[in-house]
Amino acid sequence: MKEMSNKMKASPGLFRVTRQVCKAEWAYELSFVWDSKENYGAWKESDLQKEVHSIYQAALEDCGIKEDDVYSGARVVDDF
């Protein structure tokens, strides 16, 4: 998580990184939030994203988790 987060700080518009863990179910959630759809889109197409994704895949492999078994998706976030 730290290695990924530190590298992702170079992504324009990234303004929040969170980690949540449900100890009852050991559900582990990461959240990365960009300030605009455009900056998120630029991230998705960047070389940095490919580099960070390889770190993510290695971390999953180290834990014996297949990437297909992990849920991921883009969301809209509103802070009130």
Automatic annotation (TrEMBL):
Family annotation (InterPro entries): Dimeric_a/b-barrel (IPR011008)
Protein name: Uncharacterized protein
